[in-house]
Amino acid sequence: MRQGALTLARHVRSGEMSAVEVVEESLAQIKAKDGRISAFNAVLGERSRRRAAEIDRQVALGEDPGPLAGIPVALKDNICASGVPTTCSSRILEGWLPPYDATVVTRLQAAGAVIIGKTNMDEFAMGSSTEASATGPTRNPCDLSRVPGGSSGGSAAAVAAGMTPLALGSDTGGSIRQPAALCGVVGAKPTYGRVSRYGLVAFASSLDQIGPIAADVADAALALEVIASHDPMDSTSIPDPCESLLAAVERDVGGMRVGLITDLLGEGIDHDVTERVEAAARALEESGAEVQEVSVPSISYGLSAYYLIAPAEASSNLARYDGVRYGLRVKGENTEKMNVATRTAGFGDEVKRRIMLGTFALSVGYYDAYYKKAQKVRTLVIRDFEAAYRSCDVLLAPTSPSVAFAFGERIDDPMSMYYSDVCTIPSSLAGHPAISVPFGTGAGGLPVGVQILAPPLREADMFAAAAALERA
Ligand code: GLN
Contact 144/38 with Cβ under 8 angstroms? Predict the structure, then answer.
């Protein structure tokens, strides 16, 4: 796309450009590029064209279609749109059609957006490379021999390749921010509860959040403003209204207290990445912020706690795929055998690994030793963040310990794959917002993302700091 969402929507609202033109350009980009990148599980050509024509009719009648007028938005394939296949890139959902729209889809459409397609992901959002997809991997538009990150790799690649100005992803432990970093785009995870999870296929319900992926910070702010809302359909939804994030993007960061997280620099983080984070700290200082070093000691246990809590919740959430209620059914002599045959054929290796890990962690005798202990660590992480935020407004850290890696490099070594999220998992455990912003390049000229973390409900400060980095 030649322009960002903010500019395009302005043109469509003023009648300078038609929504049909915008949508046609997106579809043409997808047609030209997606054969190589494979970001999309489904492209909704006819539906998008019809919807764009409707928006143009509204404009012709002098009505305002809304802040995302005519803007194509790609949905990660775990977000439901009524009547459009939602596969979670899993065989087990084959043929299933959601009977309703996710709240984010309702909000996007009410703001004039056009759902352009569904994007590829690691199966059920479990992974960091989009290699664990039943439909095959997505390629990183910056280097086709490398992974786009994951699990929202399709969404990040679609935006990075200019196939759509905006996409939504979901982030349980880093799945919006890490692929955004690896593809050189912006990805924001809001405070837990800021965006409704109604219509998002559940992975780990106490961690899952939907958020935007965009080419720049202002577009991400615009999209988050549209999708953030209180929703009675999600019992964890926060009633507080969201401050204007577009206004925050313009804000000066003079006097803002920024904490550089020392626990996420050095060992385990590639040198090129550390260098860019230190450069980001200097850039914020030059913009008038006060940068200091802080330690959040318990975050070093974050990864271990996450890999007990997330699989535990997943093992329970994924029990619903029983061959009766959704998608795939493989025949068996009786119900139990049908159930086993369906799950054996329908789930990929990583999903099975998580279900086993989670079931184990929740079993009698292990519950106290593993699950309960992990929950205690989660509380410690929250307390350590609270302490850090007594002297800091936002925190600065890498998004990913390395730039985009090659296909096959980590897929057979779960531990090294899990390590990809070491920098993003802590704010997920705490339920805090965090954003990844591209900040130059590292090894092989590949993009490096830096992360701004903020206390709960302080997305405005997070966007202000992110925009300052982008300007730098
Ligand atoms: N990569 C992490 C995992 O595999 C995070 C995934 C996510 O945020 N959905 O669980």
Answer: no
Structural domains of the chain ordered from first start: 5-249 (3.90.1300.10)
pLDDT digits (tens, 9 = 90+) for 120-166: 999 999 999 999 999 999 999 999 999 999 999 999 999 999 999 99
- What tokens does 222 get? 């615009």
3-state secondary structure of 91: helix
Task: Pull the structure tokens for residue 3.
Answer: 């322009």
Q: If you ran DSSP here, which 8-state letter would residue 432 be given?
A: -
Q: Best mutation site among 126, 349, 357 for ligand 1, i.e. most ligand atoms within 8 A of its Cβ?
A: 126
Closest CA to 107 of 55, 149, 68: 68
| 371 CA → ligand 1 middle, Å | 18
Task: Quick: pLDDT tens for 44-82.
Answer: 999 999 999 999 999 999 999 999 999 999 999 999 999
Ligand 1: list residues with CB < 6 Å. Answer: 125-128, 151, 171-175, 203, 310, 421
Q: How many angstroms separate the CA atoms of 99 and 310, rounded?
A: 27
376 classed as catalytic: no
> What b/e sequence results for 300-329 when a residue is b if at least 16 CB atoms lie within 10 Å of its CB, and e otherwise?
ebbbebbbbbbbbbbbbbbeebbbeebbbb
pTM above 0.85, yes or no: yes
DSSP secondary structure letter of residue 79: B
Two tokens at 372?
């309960």
CB neighbours of residue 267 within 10 Å: 6
